[in-house]
Design a protein that fits this description.
2 copies of one chain form a homodimer. Chain A folds into 2 domains: 8-113, Fumarylacetoacetase, N-terminal domain (SH3 type barrels, Roll); 121-409, Fumarylacetoacetate hydrolase, domain 2. Chain A contains 11 helices and 27 strands. The radius of gyration of chain A is 21 Å and the shape is globular. The N and C termini of chain A lie far apart (55 Å). Chain A is of the alpha+beta class and 414 residues long. The interface between A and B is large, with 68 and 68 residues.
């Protein structure tokens, strides 16, 4: 049910940032970046509230949420409760509200930054339809799903240095590729540039080296979720990925949405993982509903054109939850840190219009997409803008993530 | 030729830390960790020299070398020149020498820490003999070397959070494995625990997102080198590594030596990469001798026993240099950062006694090693200590790296 706020725009049922949401991000308004929440069409400066003594000292004056994220679930909840109280329609209209009002900025006037310093970035492969689609294209239908896939959430370490916030322009990568019939590889701009529609789990609490964590402990370590686009260079990937996995094909950019939506805001939308085809071993077994019902989509905009929605799917289609991925990630004793980012893997639903990558939508480029303006696309062209969107739909309100988009710049000369 | 120092122990031809070396590390003596160099059997407190105005302000009072490393080649050389002058036998015996003397600690009295904050860790696979050995065991002799191997230095992103300094005890990892004839995988302690003998290149200067760097630019970005043991769980690796590469099998620990040996100290030992079997594409081509002639070895010590040298090899056997690896790493536009660590890949020479992993030495466990005390080993047992050693041999002096060792603790209950 919608929680009512005295910030009136937050009470619109279509608003992504009602009082129920209170996501965390980092903003600036021509000055130093600092922490914020979003409410309606406003951005609330948490550094100002901290300075005024209205919030506990959690490093909100820093240009990243890591200090706050490291403080753990009790502090996260206390700050959420305090913000809920301060912004509630029931909050009395007095001096405190004046202080809060003076810390509000119009969202359209501020710049949003990467919300946290990414310690390390790991990307998983936990969408079954995606794994089957890609496996079929790369290895044939008989070998589509690797033998380990139903037993562990397969993942690989990605590159944290190129995780950027929505709106950052993305340079088309260069790389080495080899045509099947060529004698030698060649080096040049990626010809099969793609997206991957994912959710990202942001780790708040760290774990100790040598010490695996349980699925429940893992769930408690997660601070919140973002939308995540794992930009992918399919032709570079095809040549490089055997035997050690994706490397430069994924290293050039990963875009995330500017707002981290907290677990608390998503709590009403928890849902179970799909039925298990083979029983999971005890250390990875579900202990409750740990996925979320989040509607996800992708739109594509050719330069100068209007957006075309090219995919609509849901996070609930994943086979493994972020908590299970995190439990697996720590199973060897790998230390997890505040600021680690875990990509869910591409979210593809069972139907073609629910696929989360162009590779799947165009079946390896064989079946081009037609945009609303009549242009066709096999993969991404220079000047195209790709945007992910997502929200959880409640009764009379929605929990939004903000935009997760990027425009492709032409490659440098190789 | 040995450069003579007034620190007399530095003038022994067997000493790993003569005036020619001057490696950088981080130490403490019951107080706060700070930066240091090694000279003879002493450790020189660079924070004290900085405070006394004998060195420029480079963050030497910090518990990591990152600030200094970010300053670039001119500052690196200026500090090296200054330290060389201060410690030279020709330095006049006056007040300055008294100040330097008061900043010296006995190496046996101090604790050495991780020398830099590891931003991200990447591990390569650039030793040809190793790739052939492992490929033969995993995929058969016909498919030993992947098709891309002679064209790009294959690598994967590793885990920075578990890079530890020599001497740190290593917990035997847990993980999921599956016997070839089993219906289901199982979860428990690693049964095939291994080392990988590697060199690590430490990145000083960063690069920009979207902008590839040339091989020469890459070489200039490298601050120095360490010994690196890429601890590996072979049974976990065999089950998990397809199709996205090694993950938990490598994530539990990576040990490095405490001293970063600078490029300047290694300059006399540069040597070329081996002859190319296929020409490299221009962006990866050698521009000069970019490998180093560094003698490397491994010793194994069962609990309570004496060390047995089980491998002796040389860094010059690698097919790709660190500069080529770094050029490849940035080729897609991946931003590199101060503190990035690049593992060379296992250094295996052509002969069996030159192999850099137990997997190769025992050929997958089929041919056990016999230690000097008569014990045999297929893989590492609890209580075993594995140590890497390495030095470049000059005329009348050597450039040493210090120890790179770890002892294995029993696994936690699974």
């Amino acid at each position: 049910m919608l929680m009512s706020s005295w910030v009136e725009t937050a009470n619109d049922p279509q608003c992504p940032f009602p009082l129920n949401n209170l996501p965390f991000g980092v903003f600036s308004a021509g000055d130093a970046p600092r922490c914020a929440t979003a409410i309606g069409d406003k951005v609330l400066d948490l550094a100002a509230l901290q300075k005024a003594g209205l919030l506990p000292a959690c490093g909100f004056d820093e240009p990243a949420l890591n200090t706050f994220m490291a403080k753990g679930p009790q502090v996260w909840q206390a700050v959420r409760d305090r913000l809920t109280s301060l912004l509630s329609a029931e909050h009395e209209d007095g001096e405190t509200r004046l202080q809060v009002t003076s810390a509000l900025h119009e969202a359209c006037d501020v710049r949003l930054h990467l919300p946290f310093q990414v310690s390390e970035y790991t990307d998983f492969y936990a969408g079954k339809q995606h794994a089957i689609n890609v496996g079929t294209m790369f290895r044939g239908a008989e070998n589509a799903l690797p033998p380990n896939w139903l037993h562990i959430p397969i993942g690989y370490n990605g590159r944290a240095s190129t995780v950027v916030v929505s709106g950052t322009e993305i340079r088309r990568p260069l790389g080495q590729t080899k045509a099947p019939d060529a004698d030698m590889p060649s080096f040049g701009p990626c010809q099969r540039l793609d997206i991957e529609l994912e959710m990202g789990a942001v780790i708040g609490l760290p774990s100790n080296m040598g010490q695996p964590v349980s699925v429940d402990e893992a769930d408690a370590m997660i601070f919140g979720y973002v939308l995540l686009n794992d930009w992918s260079a399919r032709d570079i990937q095809a040549w490089e990925y055997q035997p050690l996995g994706p490397f430069q094909a994924k290293a050039f950019a990963t875009t995330i949405s500017p707002w981290i939506v907290t677990k608390a805001a998503l709590e009403p939308f928890r849902c179970p993982t799909p039925e298990r085809e083979k029983p999971l071993l005890p250390h990875l077994r579900d202990t409750g509903p740990m996925l979320y019902d989040i509607e996800l989509g992708v739109s594509m905009t050719a330069k100068g054109g209007a957006p075309t929605v090219i995919s609509q799917t849901n996070y609930r289609y994943m086979y493994y939850s972020a908590a299970q991925q995190l439990a697996h990630h720590s199973s060897s004793g790998c230390a997890m840190r505040t600021g680690d980012l875990l990509g869910s893997g591409t979210v593809s639903g069972p139907d073609k219009h629910q696929y989360g990558s162009l590779l799947e939508m165009t079946w390896g480029g064989k079946e081009p997409l037609t945009l609303d303006d009549g242009q066709t696309r096999r993969f991404i062209e220079d000047g195209d803008t790709l945007a992910l969107h997502g929200h959880a739909q409640g009764q009379g309100y929605r929990i939004g993530f903000g935009s997760c988009k990027g425009t492709i710049l032409p490659a440098f000369d190789s």
